[in-house]
Amino acid sequence: MTCFFVMSLLFGLTFGQTASLCAPSEYIIHVEKRECAYCLAINTTICAGFCMTRDSNGKKLLLKSALSQNVCTYKEMLYQTALIPGCPHHTIPYYSYPVAVSCKCGKCNTDYSDCVHEKVRTNYCTKPQKLCNV
Q: For the chain, what is the mean pLDDT?
């Protein structure tokens, strides 16, 4: 029984990432500026899904490298720019946003991701809505 447990543990540590379900997912971003007449609903893709993590309760028994807490994050992304309609001439009517091309399970990079789990915020418009399909 002990041999089976050890082999299962080693297999899980070695091949655990292959069971991850991290992939680009469709998402709608709502963008509005105070000066502009409309809210823009942008169809884009973000990285979302499940990544295998390892319980840190066994940190005294396992190597530090075996205690990963991975998140679903961008492997490859590009930026697109949308024009917010109904903006006066003195306002910059452009909004740039990331588009996930491919995703991976890995450490959260604070250069382009918010790595803090925060309360769920409602993503909505307070102005009339225009849809942008990019």
A: 76
Q: How far apart are CA 85 and CA 9, in angstroms?
A: 55
**Whole-prediction pTM:** 0.64
Superfamily classification of domain 18-110: Cystine-knot cytokines (2.10.90.10)
Specify whether the CB–CB gap between 19 and 105 falls below 8 A. no
Residues paired with residue 76 on neighbouring β-strands, in sequence order: 102
Contact assessment for residue 103 and residue 72, using Cβ atoms and an 8 Å cutoff? yes
Q: Determine the Cα–Cα distance for residues 69 and 52; give it in Å rounded to an integer.
A: 8
CA distance 55 to 75: 24
Report, as an integer, the average pLDDT of 11-34.
Answer: 74
List the domain boundaries for the chain: 18-110
At 104, give phi and psi (nearest 5°).
-150, 160
Torsion sign (Cα): 107, 110, 116, 117: negative
